[in-house]
Specification:
By secondary structure, this protein is an alpha/beta fold. It is built from 7 helices and 5 strands; from the N terminus they run αβββαβααβααα. Strands 3-2-1-4-5 form a 5-stranded mixed beta sheet, sandwiched between helices. α2 packs parallel to α4.
Length: 211
């Protein structure tokens, strides 16, 4: 059978075989707070040219039969590799910062980095900012409510939820295991068109620092 990609998806769509994207109705960002908000350092900057130059962070909601949970993610802007993640029942800064701590522990390069996020109170909180300072990472934040200012983080959320987290787990523990497996596949097995069909781990680990 000879059929191209577009024709294949047209066939699936006609027979209602496409996976329907999940739509988010749970708000994870509250930016109307008194804490200091940092300027957007990525808005007019060129794309990253090396791993760990820019880290992007976001929080998305996921569900199990036990209820709604929150997945915090920190992704490398160059390699698309998920550097840190954490699943929690709520999203105070003390929980969200665990994804950042994982990302910091997994860093392989020593150059300075920018951490880009929305202006949510978790990212502005002192607990979060202290970890950034301790790891020589400069904060950067969106300057409004435009989700395109943190587009990569939103894209990673969509990939995980629409390609991997497709069925509802019974418990948060089961969901945590599914997320662990999904992040591994995303980083090490799933090729990315934007990476010339390489995996994020290949790109991240294969970078050669200039002499």
């Amino acid at each position: 059978i000879k059929i191209g990609r577009d024709g294949f998806f047209d066939y699936l769509r006609a027979h209602r075989l496409l996976v329907k994207p999940k739509r988010s109705y749970t708000k994870t960002t509250f930016s109307k707070h008194w804490m200091k908000k940092h300027p957007n350092l990525t808005k007019d900057a060129p794309a990253p040219i090396k791993p760990e130059q820019t880290l992007v962070a976001d929080i998305t909601y996921v569900t199990s039969k036990q209820g709604t949970h929150y997945l915090s993610l920190v992704t490398d802007g160059y390699s698309r590799q998920i550097m840190g993640y954490h699943l929690s029942e709520s999203m105070p800064a003390t929980e969200v910062v665990k994804a950042l701590k994982m990302a910091a522990q997994r860093r392989r390069y020593t150059h300075k980095a920018i951490h880009h996020s929305d202006r949510g109170l978790q990212y502005c909180a002192s607990e979060y900012q202290e970890v950034l300072r301790a790891n020589n990472i400069t904060p950067s934040m969106t300057d409004g409510y435009d989700c395109y200012q943190n587009a990569l983080a939103e894209r990673v959320n969509g990939i995980l939820k629409n390609e991997f987290l497709l069925y509802e787990c019974n418990t948060m523990s089961e969901l945590k295991q599914l997320i662990d497996e999904s992040v591994y596949v995303y980083n090490h097995i799933r090729p990315h068109l934007s990476l010339n069909m390489r995996t994020p781990a290949e790109v991240h680990d294969g970078y050669s620092c200039p002499a």
